[in-house]
Every structure is written in structure tokens, then in C-alpha cells.
Design goal:
The protein has a single domain (about 5-140), classed as Aminopeptidase, CATH 3.40.630.30. The chain has 4 helices and 8 strands. The chain has helices spanning about 15-30, 35, 80-95, 110-115; strands spanning about 5-10, 45-50, 55-60, 70-75, 100-105, 120, 125-130, 130-140. The chain has a 4-stranded antiparallel sheet, sandwiched between helices. Strands 5, 6, 7 and 8 form a 4-stranded antiparallel sheet that branches. The N and C termini lie far apart (about 30 Å). InterPro entries: Acyl_CoA_acyltransferase (IPR016181), Bact_Acetyltransf (IPR050832), GNAT_dom (IPR000182).
């Protein structure tokens, strides 16, 4: 990780990069149907891009109700702390917006990652796009 940084993205201007990452991770790698990946929430969401220099390598989104989703990092950058930096940026923005609770639906295999960031499992396991998930919650301190 040399020049990794996170910034808030613009859904219109950064659409090609946001779509490229999500299509690669969710649609191509995880076989999520495109009609489940793209939804009406995207237009109003706050989107984040992780960049290595000028190259977009990860993304996430934050909804107005504090729901975090679409957290994804391209394969070649996984295990390098990019997901941690991305999630920290999303949490910081949620707290800046006074969203006392952040929620997400995590793939079961990723629950330990989210637990490191203060999330706790609040549901039983369920399938979303054919992938086992659990709902998780984080309460802001203070």
C-alpha cells in the first residue's frame, strides 16, 4: 500500500469506477444477479472510493438511515488494509452526520472483519443473493 486513500465519490461523475468495482466483485466473482446489485438507493447514497494513486480499487456506500453496504475491494488489493480504511471512512462520515447507529448485512465469512470495527451480529443467518448473510449493528460511542 503506497498511495492508498479514501474519498467521497460522486454517483454521477464516478459512476464508471463504482460500477467497475461492484461488477467485478459482486456480479463476476460472487455471481450476484445484476438486478439485485443495482437499486434505487444508489442515486441518494453517499458513495466512497478507495484509490491506489488515481486507480479506484474499492467502494462502499452509506444510506441516510445509517445503513452501510456494497463494501468491496478488488482482489489484488485484499488483505492490505484497504477494506479497513474504507470502512473507517464510512463510519467517520456516518458519525459526522450524527447517525448514532450504523447497520449492515454482512456476508457470514466477513463477520470477523466487521466485528473488528465494533459491529455485533443481531440476526440469524439468512440468504441474500444466494450468499449467507447476517445483520450487524454498531452503536456510536458518546
Amino acid at each position: 500500500m503506497t498511495d492508498i486513500h479514501i474519498r467521497i465519490a460522486d454517483w454521477q461523475q464516478d459512476n464508471a469506477e463504482l460500477r467497475r468495482i461492484r461488477e467485478t466483485v459482486f456480479i463476476a466473482e460472487q455471481s450476484v444477479p445484476p438486478e439485485l446489485e443495482w437499486d434505487a438507493e444508489d442515486a441518494a447514497a453517499i458513495h466512497f472510493l478507495a484509490l491506489d494513486g488515481d486507480y479506484a480499487i474499492g467502494t462502499a456506500r452509506l444510506l441516510a438511515d445509517g445503513h452501510i453496504g456494497r463494501v468491496s475491494v478488488l482482489r489484488d488489493w485484499r488483505g492490505l488494509g484497504v477494506g479497513d480504511a474504507l470502512l473507517q471512512a464510512v463510519i467517520a462520515e456516518a458519525e459526522r452526520r450524527d447517525l448514532k447507529q450504523q447497520r449492515l448485512s454482512a456476508q457470514v465469512q466477513a463477520t470477523a472483519f466487521y466485528e473488528r470495527h465494533g459491529f455485533t451480529v443481531i440476526s440469524g443467518e439468512f440468504l441474500d443473493a444466494g450468499i449467507p448473510h447476517v445483520d450487524m449493528l454498531r452503536e456510536s460511542r458518546g
